[in-house]
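Notes from hallway chat w/ T.B., transcribed later so I don't forget. T.B. wanted the structure written out for a chain they're using in a teaching module, and asked if we could keep both sequence and structure tokens in one place. Agreed to drop them here.
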Amino acid sequence: MMWFFSVLAGLLTGILSGFGIGGGTLLILWLTLVSGMDQFHAGGINLVYFVCCALPALISHWKNGLLEKKAVLWCTLAGVPSCILASLLASNLDVTLLRRIFGVFLLFIGCRELFSKSKRKTGS
């Protein structure tokens, strides 16, 4: 029966990812807190999950003209080497430390979202 809830968690987090809500973060929480998986393996699964969710989102944004080509270029040039370095660093970190770093990151993002003022554009 646990497999059913895992599939359901993957489905729901995939839908949330499509809306840009951060389903991958929720998936890591599911894998570590509910499924009992260690942080390092949950992060690896999240990367595969991200690729599967990001490709359809990228195609949709491309078709709708929502990509800024300069931003894509600079983010790719900075992101690829950063990902390689971060993965090498993460593979040498203790899993407990990795989990704590992830927790602090979630706490920081949550507080920032909770206490930041919304910059909503109003239509005229």
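Follow-up for T.B.: The CA atoms of residues 72 and 78 lie 10 Å apart. Might be a good example for the class.
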